[in-house]
Write a structure and sequence with these properties.
Length: about 300
């Protein structure tokens, strides 16, 4: 029975060693003292194996400059592990890199010891050697102060010039911010007629057409009903106008017009000629409806 267990253990060990390997390779085995050397660790293990990667905190005779991460690559039933280290040594002569140990399923794999020749750089015979000198103190350049002073004067003169001319420049108000002197209803209907005559959408400027159309409606709402409409989105205008429009068909037309304007603005929809005409008519009918009582009072 003991022989059977011994046979199983030996067979498992042979199987593990056949499927597993651990090696260390350096990019060079001769360096000048203080020069870097690259150490690459590579292991091939069964994909289901449990392992403990060697913790490389120090190697006797070597100083670790940088420690790369452990990379893994799966190939069929194996996993390939690799890590790259950057080392150097300040000991001269033959310096031996000690073996590293990798534990796999309770067993241990180890790398070979690697000899590294560390030597001093050659110094030519008769070459004069000098002591290390302290950094030289650079004398202060007074011309820098002159340059800074001239630059400061130029900047101050430029600021004075801009401030003086900008203060005198008349403020140009956009047409949207000018308060119309005529009544809001009359003004809005006049602007709608001008927009219709401009034929913007017929000439391909559909965005400009809807932008002007909605701005006319916004200004009318602000002047007529004191609504904050100029900064409102199309959806916000629909909500604010709901109490003002009792006619369901008219409200539906206005809602469609405002939603269409938003789609055209963000290039999500190419409107039809009939839709462009209906949008203007919906807003015109709304304004006429709100101005109708005043017109009747005037007739009386």
């Amino acid at each position: 029975m003991k022989n059977l267990w011994l046979f199983i253990l030996i067979t498992a060990g042979i199987s593990l060693s056949a499927q597993s390997s651990f090696e260390a390779v350096v990019d060079t085995q001769q360096i000048k003292i203080g020069e870097p050397i690259i150490l690459k660790l590579k292991a091939k293990l069964p994909s289901e194996a449990t392992y403990q990667w060697p913790i490389v905190e120090e190697l006797q005779g070597f100083e670790i400059l940088s420690l790369g991460k452990i990379d893994s690559l799966f190939q069929e039933d194996q996993v390939i592990l690799s890590q790259e280290l950057r080392l150097t040594s300040f000991d001269s002569g033959d310096v031996f890199m000690a073996p590293l140990h990798l534990k796999v399923n309770g067993d241990s794999l180890h790398t070979d010891s690697i000899p590294i020749l560390v030597y001093y750089p050659n110094v030519k015979e008769g070459q004069e050697l000098f002591d290390i000198k302290a950094p030289r103190e650079i004398p202060f350049n007074y011309w820098i102060l002159v340059y800074w002073a001239i630059g400061g004067i130029i900047v101050l003169a430029l600021i004075y010039y801009l401030a003086k001319h900008l203060r005198k420049k008349p403020v140009v108000k956009s047409e949207k911010n000018i308060e119309p002197k005529i009544p809001p209803g009359e003004w809005a209907l006049q602007k709608l007629d001008e927009l219709e005559a401009a034929k913007l959408w017929e000439e391909g400027n559909t965005k400009g057409y809807y932008s002007e159309l909605v701005d006319i409606l916004r200004i009318y709402l602000e002047r007529k009903f004191a609504l904050k409409a100029m900064e409102s989105t199309a959806d916000e205008l629909i909500v604010k106008m709901k109490p003002l429009v009792e006619d369901e068909d008219l409200f539906r037309s206005i809602k469609q017009s405002l939603q269409l304007s938003a789609l055209v603005k963000y290039a999500r929809h190419r409107s039809l000629a009939q839709e462009n005409t209906q949008a203007l008519e919906a807003i015109r009918n709304f304004i006429k409806l709100k101005e109708a009582p005043k017109i009747e009072d005037a007739d009386v």
